[in-house]
Design goal:
It is a single chain. It contains nine helices and twelve strands. By secondary structure, it is α/β, with parallel strands linked by helices. The chain has two domains: 5-86 and 281-298, NAD(P)-binding Rossmann-like Domain (Rossmann fold), CATH 3.40.50; 89-273, NAD(P)-binding Rossmann-like Domain (Rossmann fold, 3-Layer(aba) Sandwich), CATH 3.40.50. A seven-stranded parallel beta sheet has the order 8-7-6-9-10-11-12, sandwiched between helices. Strands 2-1-3-4-5 form a five-stranded parallel beta sheet, covered by helices on one side. α1 packs parallel to α9 and α3 crosses α5. The protein is elongated. One of its GO terms (molecular function) is oxidoreductase activity. This is Glyoxylate/hydroxypyruvate reductase A.
C-alpha cells in the first residue's frame, strides 16, 4: 500500500473529476482502509462523512473543495491538523461576476422591465446613476474585497462590514457590533458574503433588514445573498419583501438546499433565484494549487490560506 495517499471524501456530487485530477500526482481513495488508516496524508473534502477524518492518524492537512469550511468544522471529532481554504482566481472571478451582474440588474431595474415585457408595455423608466447608490458588502475577505473593487470601478459607493476591523481601498469600512447598524443605515443594496460561524448563523433576519436604507435612488432596499444559506432566515426575507422592508432580492443560497419545491420563495415575483451557482468550485482550476500545497508541505514549507478555527473561517 502507498503510504502517501489522498482521501477524497465528498457528498452531494460525483467526485470522479476531482479523483481523476488528484490521481495525476498521487494515489486517491474514496474510503480509508479500516478504522485506522496510516497511509492517508491529506484529505480533500466537501461535507465529508461523519468521523471519517478522526480515523487517519498520519493526516497532515485538510483541504476544502468549496470556499466555506463550516461543513468541516461541524465535525466534533475533527483532528487537530491544519485546514486549508480555497482561494483561487477563477472562483473569485465567478463570484465577482455574479455580484456585479445582480447589483447591475437591480440598479438598472431588470425586474420592472421584465414585468413590462411580459405585459408588452413600452415605458422608459427614470434611471439614477451608480454614484447615487450605496452597495454594502457583509464579509470583506478575498471575495468581498474583489467584488468591492469591481463595484467601485463602476461608480458605486461601497460600504464594507466585517466582524473585525479590515481596511480595503475605496471602501467605507465598518466593523463589529457597534458598526453594524451604521453600516446598514447607509446601504441601499446589501450583499452578503459572510462565512458561516456560530456568530453569523441566522444574522440576516427581519430586524437586520429593517435597518437598510429604503428611501433611496432605487425606490427601496435590495438584498443579494451569495454566501451561506444558513446565514439568513428565509421566512424573514419573505416577510421583508411582503411589507416593503425589501424591494427585491437575489438569492443564490438558502436555509435548505436544494430549495424545496414547496417553498413560497419560488413563486415570489420580487425574488431572483439561482441554485447555489454564483461561484462553483471547478476541479480543473482548484486541484493544481491543492497539489502544489501538498508538495510544499511534504518539503516542510508552511501551508497558505489556513483557517482560524477560533474565528470559524
Amino acid at each position: 500500500m502507498c503510504m502517501d495517499r489522498i482521501l477524497l471524501s465528498v457528498t452531494g456530487f460525483n467526485p470522479h473529476r476531482w479523483q481523476e485530477l488528484l490521481a495525476q500526482d498521487r494515489e486517491v481513495v474514496l474510503e480509508p482502509d479500516g478504522s485506522n488508516d496510516p497511509s492517508i496524508r491529506y484529505a480533500v473534502v466537501w461535507k465529508q462523512k461523519p468521523n471519517v477524518l478522526a480515523r487517519l492518524p498520519n493526516l497532515k492537512a485538510i483541504f476544502s473543495i468549496g470556499a466555506g469550511v463550516d461543513h468541516i468544522l461541524a465535525d466534533r471529532t475533527l483532528p487537530d491538523v491544519p485546514i486549508v481554504r480555497v482561494i483561487d482566481p477563477n472562483l473569485t472571478q465567478h463570484m465577482v461576476e455574479y455580484i456585479v451582474w445582480r447589483v447591475m440588474d437591480h440598479h438598472r431595474q431588470g425586474l420592472a422591465y421584465r414585468a413590462q415585457q411580459a405585459r408588452k408595455v413600452w415605458n422608459e423608466r427614470a434611471q439614477r446613476t451608480a454614484q447615487d447608490i450605496s452597495v454594502g458588502i457583509m464579509g470583506i475577505g478575498a471575495l468581498g474585497s474583489a467584488a468591492a473593487k469591481a463595484l467601485t470601478s463602476l461608480g458605486f459607493h461601497v460600504n464594507g462590514w466585517s466582524r473585525t476591523e479590515r481596511k480595503v481601498s475605496g471602501v467605507n469600512a465598518y466593523h463589529g457590533e457597534s458598526g453594524l447598524i451604521p453600516f446598514l443605515n447607509s446601504t441601499d443594496i446589501l450583499v452578503v458574503l459572510l462565512p458561516l460561524t456560530d456568530q453569523t448563523r441566522g444574522i440576516i433576519n427581519y430586524e437586520l433588514l429593517r435597518e437598510l436604507r429604503r428611501r433611496n435612488g432605487l425606490g427601496g432596499a435590495v438584498l443579494i445573498s451569495a454566501g451561506r444559506g444558513k446565514l439568513h432566515k428565509d421566512a424573514d426575507i419573505l416577510r421583508a419583501l411582503e411589507d416593503g422592508t425589501l424591494k427585491e432580492a437575489s438569492l443564490d443560497v438558502f436555509e435548505q438546499e436544494p430549495l424545496p419545491k414547496t417553498s413560497p420563495i419560488w413563486g415570489n415575483p420580487k425574488v431572483f433565484i439561482t441554485p447555489h451557482a454564483a461561484a462553483t468550485s471547478n476541479p480543473a482550476h482548484l486541484v493544481r494549487p491543492m497539489l502544489e500545497q501538498m508538495r510544499a508541505a511534504d518539503e516542510g514549507k508552511p501551508l497558505l490560506n489556513l483557517v482560524d478555527r477560533a474565528a470559524g473561517y
